[in-house]
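Backbone geometry:

***
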Amino acid sequence: MSIDHIFIFTDNNGQDADELVNFGLTEGSNRVHLGQGTANRKFYFDNFFLEILWVHDVNEITSDKTKSMGLWQRAAYKTNYFSPFGLCIVNTDNSETIFKNAFKYQPDYFPQGMEIDIIKNEDQSDLPWTFRLPFKGENKHENEPKTHKNDISVLTNAIFEYKSVSDKTFLENFKHQNQTQFIESSRHWLNLIFDNGKQGKKQEFEKLKLTIEY
């Protein structure tokens, strides 16, 4: 299974993304998710994009339609201690098994019948909110900027740190996946390794709970 993108919830209207710009990343497009109550800033790479997400409209994200998918719990990570991360897996035949019993969400910003498959992990809150989009295969995002001042280009590994889990069924799906890994830790944290770390450099972003190695 390949990663389409990863989101990180923040609580300051996406201002933390400025740190990524200062680090040398080129910012791509952004959007407000109509009816969902969230907005984003995005950074694109050759095989992946990173999304900084925040609550744009609290009434929308806690509405009867939207609240049931559990996204609001991730937005409240500072008070309920849920993981602030979301993991989007590319929609291929290889991802059918993990999403077999997924929650179905019909966004207002997609045509009717184009549902998002979601594993809410609400009982395993240290694990990321995991989902796949209704579009089959990888999206190349041809119109997005992918050249960065620090010469980062390809995501090699995404390593999620989690505090504890009571049931490892979800983790078993990633046991033999090289790109996505999970390690037990004392914190919620995301480690992104680009280009196999060929430059031998590392940068931490404390507010985003993120380390980038490249």
